[in-house]
Amino acid sequence: MRIPKTPPKMVELTEKEEDTLFINIINDIFSATVDNKYLHWDKLSYYKAPDKLSHKIWWLGIKNARQSLYKLIPFKNKKQELFRYAIIDSVTKSLHEIDKGAAGQILMDSSAINSENRDRYLISSLVNEAITSSQIEGAATTREVAKEMLKSGRAPRDKSEQMILNNFKTMQQIRKLKDKPLTKEIVFDIHRMVTEHTLDKPDAAGRFRLEDEKIRVVDDYNNVFHEPPAASELEYRMQLFCDFANCKIPEAFVHPVIRSIILHFWLAYDHPFIDGNGRTARALFYWSMMNHGYWMFEYISISEIILNASSKYERAFLYTETDDNDLTYFILYHLDVIDKAVQSLHKYIKTKSEQLRAVEQQLRGMQTLNHRQQALISHALRHPGFRYTVNSHKVSHNIAYETARTDLMELVKQELLISLKVGRTMYFIPIKSLENKLAKE
Length: 441
Prior knowledge:
Elements: H1 10-16, H2 19-27, H3 41-44, H4 55-67, E1 70-76, E2 82-86, H5 89-102, H6 110-113, H7 115-136, H8 143-152, H9 159-177, H10 184-195, E3 217-218, E4 224-226, H11 234-245, H12 256-270, H13 277-291, H14 303-308, H15 310-322, H16 328-364, H17 371-382, H18 390-397, H19 401-413, E5 417-422, E6 425-430, H20 434-440
Antiparallel strand pairs: 1-2, 3-4, 5-6
Helix pairs in contact: 5-16, 7-9, 9-10, 9-13, 10-13, 11-12, 12-13, 12-16, 15-16, 16-17, 18-19
């Protein structure tokens, strides 16, 4: 990927133009977007400029229109220039959709939100995030092998598998930390977790990089895309980072989602560690979203979407760096990632609900099951971890003990339940692939 063209500076443009022309530009045509797109100078050249205007003058007008929309934040680049972002219509719309879709009470089929299915999907989401977040950073293993390792509990066989296991444990820990204020120590703990047994210098886990540990972000051809601030600045910058994460600064309101996105960018920009910065940044994004009450982010994976279009992530980062620290590019990119992730979860919930309804409809037509057995299996589909006893079935249907026992033993015979004796009590639990088995009947 090439480094985008650096836009001409406003001061350079205004010094070269006549005052009357500049005044006309300010008063006339310009908005912060072009065709509702927040364009970087690198992209503007592909668009036809308005009549009688050069692209440089057009850019001057666009930049001038953005000035009144900018909000400054207490986060500076290496030149001690503040970062900023613009609140444009598409940002406001996206934030509204996220507030509706990831924070509030969502109406969905009860089968999709009962505790057992919720826990199953949570584990699936954690596994997916652990795998894809590691793959972004170069982990090379198949999804099937990684899932087998995480679900079986076996030890990692190589660095790639270790990275995935580390991410899985980190995401589990983030859920426990979501109500705690962020501190440097917590950031270090998270970094230590994501890099355990993966660093060439094991002592670098959970500490800032040192002055002699030069870090640069480069591509495969050694082109430098980013050089982070000096190690001597990291202590102070981390304190600001935590103050921003904990809403101590700035005094002006920053929407929680934007705050979370900026934290992602901020840690990636500062690159405080010799390795594991990307994984730590994404983990802290999740912490921030859950800390602000976006509970659905326990079930959402953003890394898969980032992985599928990694060049867009890199480009959004570079656009911000090259255009006056304008975080709007990165915010718009990240809002799109969040929207896709939320939509993916909603799609899963809808599909899952439809599948369960279809299986239950088929269940009602099974002549081999009586109405009591159908009711129990229907309940088991929605509560896959539930344990039944002869007595519970007897009470539920007001039937004789022997009738209840016959019902359950017949379901075992049909391989829909399995029986398990604990002490003197016989328990009956659904088979793991109950839904799939019924769908094939």
